[in-house]
Write a structure and sequence with these properties.
The protein is α/β, with parallel strands linked by helices and 561 residues long. It has 24 helices and 20 strands. The longest helix is centred in the C-terminal third of the chain and has 21 residues.
Length: 561
């Protein structure tokens, strides 16, 4: 039997900010359903992705976990509810301190708890809190456009990762993700007279990025582009596409300034450094969780990193903390090569309430030899086919024994018409990046719906982006189609695409509602992008008002520097 926890007890516990204990609150519903209404402290860990996400987000097996859903979420394979099913699976995988929120989000609301829509809510709400707390300077799109047209002395620094920047950016902008701003700004704005404009897609990374430069004491005038690229488009201006310009590495003089600036910020916000011996002692502590988070760029991480660390670029770590760590009040050890990015990131995490966010001192990264396979567009078919094995080894994910089918064999059998393909990747990838021609789309935790829609089949081939979800779903598919041969496409859709086979776009054969993931404003294809952008911005701005009603949320404040 899985233990239950009353909503009133959890509200009381989270409202006590004097003695915080480690806890992970996990929502077992699909992300798109979670998006509509969830607890502030709950991380999205859908039942369909549990084995892949749980080891990374809650690495210590004795961590106290509270699973939740909406109190009514049931399927044929989870008759007692998604939260109970997730809790049972977590126990089977080795987590020992597991309970379920009795009555789910409905009971939470009935007990007076605040419910939030959206994703990355702690970080998004914190961004709005920062703007109100510090009065972060901002500039509307029309003023920025006028300055661009006048060829004013200014630089526009886009605080998002390169793929987002390449997809769309402000004309004349340069990519410089959040944690890189203090690290690289002097190369972009060596003159104190240069105006520095920081933008993102919406608000959070613009606000945090701008305030980072202000906190660092940059002599230049710094502003956040109000409402980011969404505000820019809503004002009627065109975005640039396909650009790949990145802020350069800092020169010795720029690095000297950034290290001094970061040290000053670290002192103000109580950031401390720890040595390797201390980290080793923490990792040996069975009663506390320690995350090793490398806040440099993904490219730097791929070139060499400390064993046991994960890539968590600093700007994204602050922007979407719940996607990297789900154990509240854990220790967060931040890693870079000179302390600047780690210190700036730690300063924000401490303001977010992560009291034990620290910086690892004396890091040597260039001597690290990696045994991981780094996959890119030029990876061989063999590497793609073995990615699942590599990922399982790294994350400790237990993969069942499954019957595989090669890309070549699937292509031949599709021509013969004797197989049915079910794609268990996300609906967004199925519709946007494409899928195997004729493939159905479904969700692993809703295979009963897939069986009802697809009907009987002699052979069902499961696929997903990298075959991991498909492999995990194979035993469950065998229960849904007891008389069928169940196969998993080796290497998944990536291997299929890599072999040169066409991918068919569109949402052609769904077996369930496409609410498995959150669709960003730019992801919708219903012809009303402005409405989605405005709704998103309105949601972000309103988050700060919800904080005033929620006693479970506490952001510490620090004296001005």
């Amino acid at each position: 039997m899985i233990a239950t926890l009353e909503a009133s007890a959890l509200i009381a516990e989270l409202s006590n900010h004097d003695s915080p204990a480690e806890i992970a609150i996990l929502d077992a519903r699909e992300q798109g359903v979670y998006f509509d209404s969830h607890l502030f402290h709950a991380a999205s860990v859908p039942l369909s992705q549990l084995e892949l996400m749980l080891p990374r987000l809650v690495p210590r097996r004795t961590t106290r976990i509270v699973w939740c859903d909406d109190g009514t979420s049931t399927t044929a394979s989870a008759p007692e509810g998604l939260a109970v099913a997730a809790a049972q699976r977590a126990v089977e995988l080795g987590w020992t301190n597991v309970s379920v929120l009795s009555g789910g989000t409905a009971a939470w609301a009935q007990a007076g708890g605040e419910l939030y829509s959206g994703v990355n809510v702690p970080s998004k709400a914190f961004g709005e809190f920062v703007e109100h707390e510090y009065g972060t300077p901002r500039m509307p799109a029309a003023e920025v456009k006028a300055l661009i047209d006048a060829k004013a002395d200014m630089v526009i620094l886009d605080s998002r990762p390169m793929p987002e920047f390449t997809n769309m950016s402000i004309p004349t902008g340069t990519d410089c993700p959040g944690a890189e701003l203090v690290h690289r700004v002097k190369e972009m704005a060596p003159s104190h007279d240069t105006l520095v404009v920081v933008n993102c897609a919406g608000r959070t990374r613009s606000i945090i990025g701008c305030q980072s430069l202000v906190n660092a004491g940059l002599e230049n005038r710094v502003v956040a582009l109000e409402n980011g690229t969404m505000g820019w488009e809503l004002a009627g201006y065109e975005v640039a596409r396909g650009h790949t310009t990145h802020a350069p590495d800092p020169s010795p003089s720029s690095q000297e300034w950034s290290q001094a600036a970061a040290a000053s910020v670290g002192k103000r916000f109580g950031v401390v450094s720890v040595d390797h011996d201390q980290v080793a002692a923490w990792q040996a502590d069975a009663d506390r969780t320690t995350y090793l988070l490398d806040v440099r760029t993904p490219e730097e991480f791929a070139a060499g990193h400390l064993p046991g660390s994960v890539s968590a670029p600093g700007g994204q770590l602050v922007q979407a903390t719940d996607e990297y760590v789900a154990t509240w009040n854990a220790r967060l050890v931040l890693i870079d090569d000179d302390g600047v990015r780690a210190t700036m990131t730690a300063s924000w995490l401490r303001q977010l309430g992560w009291d034990d966010a620290v910086v690892l001192d004396d890091v040597v990264l260039d001597a690290v030899v990696l045994d991981d396979v780094v996959l890119d567009a030029a990876s061989s078919a063999q590497e793609l086919a073995t990615e699942s094995v590599r990922a399982a080894r790294v994350d400790g994910t237990p993969l069942p024994e499954v019957a595989l089918i090669s890309v070549a064999d699937l292509a031949a059998r599709l021509d013969a018409g004797d197989v049915t393909v079910l794609d268990l990747g996300t609906s967004l990838k199925y519709r946007k990046k494409g899928h195997i021609s004729g493939a159905w789309w479904g969700v692993r935790s809703r295979l009963d719906e897939a069986r009802e829609t697809m009907g009987a089949a002699s052979t069902v081939v499961l696929t997903s982006s990298d075959s991991l979800v498909a492999s995990l779903a194979a035993p469950e598919a065998a229960q849904a189609w007891p008389d069928a041969e169940i196969l998993v496409l080796e290497g998944g859709n990536r291997a299929w695409n890599h072999a040169g086979h066409p991918m068919e776009p569109g949402f052609t054969n769904p077996t369930t509602e496409a609410n498995d993931v959150w669709y960003k404003p730019y992801d919708h294809d219903d012809g009303v992008p402005a409405e989605h952008m405005q709704n998103y911005l309105t949601w972000e701005i309103a988050l700060v008002d919800q904080l005033d009603r929620d006693p479970t949320v506490f952001f510490p404040t620090f004296a001005e520097g």
